[in-house]
Amino acid sequence: MNSHLPPIDVVIIGINVTRYLGDCIASIRDADYPQELLKITFVDGGSNDSSVAIGRESGVQVIELKDEHPTPGRGRNAGLFAATAPFVQFMDADTLLDRDWLKTALGHFDDKIVAVCGKRGERWPDKNNYHIIASVEWHYEQGPCRYFGGDFIARREPLITEGGFDDLLIAGEEPDFSARLRRKGWAIWRITDSMTLHDLNMTKFAQYWKRAYRSGHAYAEVGLRHLSSPERLWARELVRISITALFPFLLIFGGALILQPLVGLLLALAVALKPLLRIPRIMSQYSTTFSVALLYALHAVFVVYPQFFGILRYLRTCLGGTPLHNIGHTVR
Hints:
It is a single chain. It is globular and about 75 Å long. Helix 8 crosses helix 9, helix 9 packs across helix 12 and helix 11 crosses helix 12 (290-318). The chain has 12 helices and 11 strands. It has 2 domains: 8-203, Alpha-Beta Complex (Spore Coat Polysaccharide Biosynthesis Protein SpsA, Chain A); 235-331, no CATH class. The protein is an alpha/beta fold.
């Protein structure tokens, strides 16, 4: 009866995920897919809680990396190279798999598609402003796309052939790998069907800052790496963040230089607050309310600054500084 369905390896990565791992595994076992065709592997990046014990008690394969400086790519590679099925579903431990996802996603593969990704939603979308912003960010359109994120299903063999993820990147390993796969002629397909529910679990401004800071670092590291490729992945984003963050201060300085500080300040405010003009488009594009669109626009106004500091941090590494490392869930 299940002869037409392929085996799937499900690779979960995480560090100190005691509060999530049991639910994540349970969601996979509740999937509308023959359980005898699913093999679940939890790759632990170096937890100091009971994550490994929970994985073993759940009866899944556990791979312990015990990394001093863990990276998502290293965890995904460990699961990928231990897999044997023709397809691999990747997940973060703080996500829940949609019951219908696996069968739905498999129906979209063809000879040229290497990976399929769907909609990641927030488990608690209205918990606070940080979760509301994340809920807006998870909206994507269906069709061919540049890259997958942390949750996706893919053909195992092409991922192995291309060497897997770059396990040195602290972030941005998925877009980097996606670009390499697409240069080999593969396509990545995104659908609007629900794939996973995610718990951002963000309650503090410091967490918001670190997330944006790390994304800026990734834009710089990955963007400069692919600068010589025809696509120039993330080059536009890198330039946009740098100009948007710097230009208001240049206007203020210019105004002071010509003894027109008020003019410089007003021009700087006009440039910095330009994302507020996108509120009607945000409301239409994401089918959301004015208040949510305003919040997201204000996020767009501010987020470029921690991102720009992340860019500067990577440039410091390029000039001989100490590389940025992950330490558990934190970044230094």
